[in-house]
Design brief:
A 3-stranded antiparallel sheet has the order 1-2-3. The radius of gyration is 25 Å and the shape is elongated. Helix content is 59%, strand content 8%. With 212 residues, it is mostly helical. It folds into 2 domains: 83 residues, PNP-oxidase-like (Split barrel-like); 111 residues, no CATH class. This is DUF2470 domain-containing protein. InterPro entries: DUF2470 (IPR019595), Haem_oxidase_HugZ-like_sf (IPR037119). It comes from Penicillium coprophilum.
């Protein structure tokens, strides 16, 4: 097997994510259009990548002297692609459910949504009203109703911020199962989602530092 064939096989087998990034960064297509990118051919001056039946030419600048430079160039192009796209080298690969204080806050927020979206729960005589003993604090249901639109608005803004400033840069595919878990979690609890993701990123950076 020639060095060129080996490189093509290696890129397609182990670095398909990089090929997709190259198409997004240098050819201006979307992540959906770049999905399942496949390196078809390689020269010292460009990559020929196919995605969804369309062939793209990605320039290698400056041109390589020979294929022995390929690994270093691919690494550099990967990092440059991430920078151009505003992405992180770290990929968020898991959902972490709230625990401890975060779990308590999640539960309280979820209860808030349940009571608010069915106002009858806050009326005297309802099972929830009686169970929580709200007759002892008659002002509380009124306060909850007043706060509802503000709490929902804040959590919607936090969820949008999570998608734009955190999930997208951390390479979480939009509308994937993982994406929905974090989005729905943030909509319920708010800031706690950011805290857990930051902890994940910190752990990955420490792990990457040890492996280098």
């Amino acid at each position: 097997m020639s060095s060129k064939d080996f490189i093509i096989k290696h890129m397609n087998a182990d670095h398909q994510d990089s090929l997709g990034l190259f198409l997004q960064a240098y050819c201006g297509i979307t992540s959906t259009q770049a999905k399942n990118a496949y390196l078809e051919d390689l020269s010292t001056s460009n990559l020929i990548i196919t995605a969804h039946g369309t062939r793209y030419s990605v320039p290698i600048e400056p041109e390589m002297k020979n294929f022995s430079e390929t690994r270093g160039r691919m690494v550099a192009m990967h990092k440059d692609s991430l920078k151009r796209l505003g992405r992180s080298e770290i990929t968020l690969t898991e959902y972490r459910a709230p625990r401890g204080v975060h779990a308590v806050i999640f539960g309280l927020c979820f209860l808030f949504y349940v009571t608010c979206f069915q106002r009858s729960n806050l009326q005297p005589g309802s099972a929830l009203y009686e169970y929580l003993g709200l007759q002892r604090v008659p002002w509380f249901p009124r306060l909850v109703c007043v706060l509802q639109p503000y709490v929902v608005a804040i959590h919607v803004l936090e969820t949008v911020a999570l998608v734009v400033t955190t999930l997208r840069p951390l390479n979480v595919p939009a509308f994937s199962g993982l994406w929905w878990k974090w989005v729905l979690s943030c909509f319920v609890e708010g800031y706690g989602s950011f805290v857990r993701i930051k902890k994940f990123v910190k752990e990955q950076k420490a792990k990457n530092g040890k492996s280098q």
